[in-house]
Amino acid sequence: MFAPCVTPAAPVLYLPREMPTMLRAFLLVYQDRTLRSYVWRPLLFSALAYLALLLAGFAVLVPWLAHLAETSGLPGAVGWIGGTVVLGVAWFFLSGPIFLVMANLFSAFLWEPLSRRVEERLYGRAEGAAPTWPMLLQDLAFRMPTTVMAALAVAVFGTGCFGLVAVVVAGWMGLNDYTSPAFARRGVVFPRQAFAALRCQNSWTLWLLGGASSLLPFLNVLLVPGWVAMGTVMCRESANPASRPPVLPPRP
Predict the structure, then answer these.
(1) Residues 6+ apart with CB under 8 A from 136
(2) 25 neighbors 244 (Cβ within 8 angstroms)
(3) pTM of the entire structure?
(4) pLDDT tens digits, the chain, 252 residues: what are they?
(5) Distance from CA of residue 201 to its chain's centroid?
(6) How far is CA 86 from its chain centroid?
């Protein structure tokens, strides 16, 4: 006789009850193996969108510079080489903000599965329902111009006051993006969601942490899932102050 097939249970994590809930949520994302697919899929989508934007910029900018060089009496190769160098240098310095825009612009859609799973793991169930496509389109229509303008402000004024401008603007943008999946499940989308996020307890914590991490190349992208988990906890406990996650037992 064959032994019955048993599905292995999710790994039990030791997250002490006295640990702040937002920190527990942040650590949960990087400790729980069952959440990994909810992390790498949005990052992969953002990477593909990032690559597509890079190729589109090369296809448009470099030929235009080559044509401009030819009309100025210079060899077309000058425009091709110069355009490639200009695009490469610009992309080197702007790659971090551009990738964050790609990862956060569709945050209500991309990070909703991770946000829902984190809420289920911490509280037993996730409140609200998955956002509908009309809600997501409305969120995107208002979020896109705001996100693009904020990213441009970071790129242009980011070095002002020793990076303080970048921290403030990117942190505000991150606060909106990292809380958007949880708020969208509750029927609150941008721009109303931006004001709801500011009223959350510990909103300044996520604002400053997300803003400071935006200055760290590569690491800023890896921290996005953790910020989404913290934003989920903020939304949950602000909407339901009596809600607290149960004590998770220690590892055997």
Answers:
(1) 108, 109, 184, 189
(2) no
(3) 0.76
(4) 333 333 344 444 545 554 677 888 898 898 888 898 888 888 887 778 778 877 887 787 778 777 777 777 777 677 777 777 877 776 666 666 666 666 666 677 788 999 999 999 888 888 888 888 888 888 888 888 887 787 777 667 655 565 677 788 888 888 998 999 999 999 999 989 999 999 998 899 899 888 888 777 777 778 889 999 999 999 998 876 656 655 444 444
(5) 20
(6) 28
